[in-house]
Amino acid sequence: MIYLFCGEDYYESFNRCTITAQNLAAKTSSNINIVNADELTDINYILQLLDGVDMFSSTGILVLKRLINNKKFIEYFADNFDRLSHFDIIIWQDNKVDSKLKLVKKIAEKKLLFNSELPKEGEMKNWIMTKAKEKGLLLNINQANFLFERYQFNKYSIISELEKLNMYLKVKNKKTLTEDVMEEVMGFNIKGDMWKFLDYFSNKNKLKALVEFEKITKYEDNSQLLISMLNRELKLISQYKYVKESGRDLSELKLPPFIIKKTADKSKNFTAQEVKMLIKRLFDLDFAIKTGSVEEKSALVLFLATI
User: Fold this and answer.
1) 279 with 231: CB under 8 angstroms?
2) What is the CATH number of the domain that holds 50?
3) In the prediction, which pLDDT does 39 show?
């Protein structure tokens, strides 16, 4: 059977994908083969895994990550759906899929499409507090808000920060988590401050943005996180400008008042056309990095140098 796990909450969709793969593997005593399908150019690689053409491969549970990004592959899967359904294939997509796609329709008809939507803000904060408790951390509502303000619905980043906070308390032999501790651990004081970087970027302070960028990227590769956060920042500004200029109610943004206020101030530094152009350039830059056309750090420096 062919399963599809997708949705904007890619943390949950990937977890559901992983659990399903593990359960199927346990039932059939099979191996799990994980393939980055969006990086492939030849469908025969997948077919060899399925048919066991390669003597060193073992047919088992096949997990295809981001297959939907590959137009030729999804056409092949749709046209050969019945034959391929004899295998255990799990497709994971890290975003919402187009329900009009032929392959998606066929999977949905089999009731094997599982979409994970983003939680509401209150649900997300409860999720943060629950995950913190699982890791031995007792968060109050203000601390949950603190995490949510910085990472919104990025569950992977939140889990990472909770693990860092837990480790910090153990190393420092502290039992109580305070806002000061959270600022210290999450502020990236030594390696740079992500939130200062975004503020410098949105205020068009090119020099300070580049200095903070250098700190953030000095010890580890944060390029994809930076691109994601820059994209979020620009989209917030774009959404604010659209709602404001069309005379609609700002409550439609469904954002906390403090974020709306900060976004309002930042939006004064850009025209709508500028924001649109920067989002497109950021998309092109991300694509060029992922295809290996440019060196990521240099490309980001050039992008920042033009704000």
Assistant:
1) yes
2) 3.40.50.300
3) 87
Q: Which residue pairs, CB below 8 angstroms and at least 24 apart, start in 108-114?
A: 110/1, 110/2, 110/85, 112/1, 112/2, 112/3, 112/4, 113/3, 113/4, 113/6, 114/3, 114/4, 114/5, 114/6, 114/7, 114/13, 114/16
**Which pLDDT score, from 0 to 100, does residue 188 have?**
45
Provide the β-strand partners of residue 236.
none
Q: Count how many domains the chain has.
A: 3
290 and 217, same domain (yes or no): yes
**How many helices (H) and strands (E) are present in the chain, helices listed first?**
15, 5
Intervals of the chain under pLDDT 70: 52-59, 187-192, 219
Domain stop point among 115, 131, 148: 115
Is 111 in the same domain as 93? yes
| Cβ proximity of 275 and 230 under 8 Å | no
Residue ranges making up the domain that contains 210: 194-305
Long-range contacts of 242-250 (CB under 8 A, 24+ apart): 242/272, 245/272
Task: For the chain, give the percent of residues with pLDDT over 70.
Answer: 95
User: Is residue 279 located within the same domain as residue 202?
Assistant: yes
Tens-digit pLDDT profile for residues 149-202: 778 888 988 998 898 888 888 888 888 888 777 777 775 443 457 888 899 999
| Whether residue 10 is found in the same domain as residue 76 | yes
pTM greater than 0.85: no
